[in-house]
Design a protein that fits this description.
Layout (H helix, E strand, L loop, with lengths): L7 E3 L4 H13 L4 H13 L4 E3 H18 L9 H19 L5
Antiparallel strand pairs: 1-2
Helix pairs in contact: 1-2, 1-3, 1-4, 2-3, 3-4
Length: 102
């Protein structure tokens, strides 16, 4: 297995993760520190490719942001946003626990 630090991932493959971050951005009430984490994460996704280790870091950030958004965050979302959030969360889980973007 190649070293994940040197494996590149197209950010096009991370669209679900990006959409989930956008849902958090649009609907979550976050303090300024979490807003900075969110903005930094979205900025990283503007590159055409990132390292697999960066993608995994973004996935972990999404998980942290979802916890910060509160336990009832998902249930308060409109259906389309909930679907996007679920897809992004699934991709984040795959990135953290597996070898690729899913």
């Amino acid at each position: 297995m190649p070293d994940p630090y040197f494996v590149q991932v197209s950010t096009a493959e991370l669209e679900d993760l990006g959409r989930a971050l956008a849902v958090v951005d649009q609907h979550a009430e976050l303090n300024h520190r979490y807003r900075k984490v969110l903005a930094d994460s979205q900025r990283v996704l503007t590159a055409p490719e990132i390292r697999l280790t960066q993608a995994r870091g973004l996935a972990k950030r999404l998980m942290v942001l979802l916890k910060a958004a509160g336990p009832d965050f998902r249930s308060r979302l409109p259906e389309a946003a909930r679907t996007a959030l679920d897809a992004g969360s699934a991709q984040a889980t795959a990135l953290v626990h597996d070898d690729g973007p899913g």
